[in-house]
Amino acid sequence: MSTKSFVIARSNLVRAVDTALAFSGTDSTLPMICGVELSIHKGKLIVAATDRFRLGIVRMSVEDRTGRAGRIGFVGRDSAVRLLKVIRGGRGHLRDAPIAVTVEGEQISFAFDFTTLAFALQDSEFPDVKKHIAASLANEGTSERWAMNPVYLASFQKAMWSRGDKAIIKTPPLPARPVLITVGEHFIGLQMPVRETDLDSNFTSWNDFLAEEVEEKVPAKKSAPARKAPAKKAAPARRAPASKAPATKKAPVKKAAAPRKRTTRKSTSA
C-alpha cells in the first residue's frame, strides 16, 4: 500500500480546487471527468480538470512531502465541493493555516484544526492532460482567426487570483486546434474552438458597416405651382336689431259736452 503525504496552506488548497472545478465535467454519464485529478509533479501539487471542451491545470507549492511523486487519484465533484465547503473561509492566520494531506491506498484525508475529512479516491481513467498541454506548447505558427465559445472563455477568469494576473493566449496553427491560455504562474489551460467554416464573414460584415457612409444624391423634385386659395365671399353684414322704444301711452282726450238746445215755449194767451 503506497503512502504519500504533504502539507499545503489552506488558502492555496481552496484556490487550487475551486479553480479546477470550474473546468470539470457535469455529465453524470461521464463520471471519469466529473471531479478533479490530483498528482505530485516536481515537488508541486497538480490539480487538473476537464469537460472535454476546456481543460485547466493548477500547480501549487507544498511542504514536508513524503512518498513517491506521481498520481494521487481522482476526487469526485461531490467530495471536492464538500471539502471546499468545510475549509473555505477563516480570518487572518486561519486562511494560511496548514492542512496535512495524507494518501493511503484508495483514500485521501485532510487534517486541520482538530478536524479530519476523508474521501475515497475513484478509480477513473482520467485523460492524459499533460500530453495535450505539451502538444499545444510544441505547436509552431498561429492561425489568424478561430472561433470560440464566449461562455467557456469566461471561465478562465476563475484563474485570476490577483489584479496582477494576466492571461497570455497562444493561438494554434490551425483553426481546429485548441487555444492555449496561461494565467499568472499558477495556471495553464486549453479551450477547444467552435467549428466554423466561414471565419471571415463577420469581419467583412463589420468592416462594411463601420466604413464611412456615402450619402446618395437624391434628385430634387419639381415643385408644383402653388394653388391660390379661392377668395372667400364676404358674408353680408348683419344689422343689429333696432331696439324698440317702449310705447308711450296716449293721454285720454276728454270729449267736450254737446251744447244743450234751448227750447222756447209758446205763450197761450191770446
List keywords for this structure.
5-stranded antiparallel sheet, 27% strand, 270 residues, 7-stranded antiparallel sheet, 18% helix, DNA Polymerase III, Chain A, domain 2, 5 helices, alpha+beta, elongated
Report on the architecture of this protein.
- The strands form two sheets. Strands 6-2-3-4-12-11-10 form a seven-stranded antiparallel sheet, sandwiched between helices. Strands 5-1-7-8-9 form a five-stranded antiparallel sheet.
- Strand 7 (98-104) and strand 8 form a beta hairpin.
- It is elongated, with a radius of gyration of 53 Å.
- The longest helix is centred in the N-terminal third of the chain and has 12 residues, at 10-21.
- It is built from five helices and twelve strands.
- It has 270 residues and is α+β, with helices and mostly antiparallel strands.
- It has one domain: DNA Polymerase III, subunit A, domain 2 (DNA Polymerase III, Chain A, domain 2, Roll), CATH 3.10.150.
- The chain starts with a strand and ends in a 60-residue tail after the last helix.
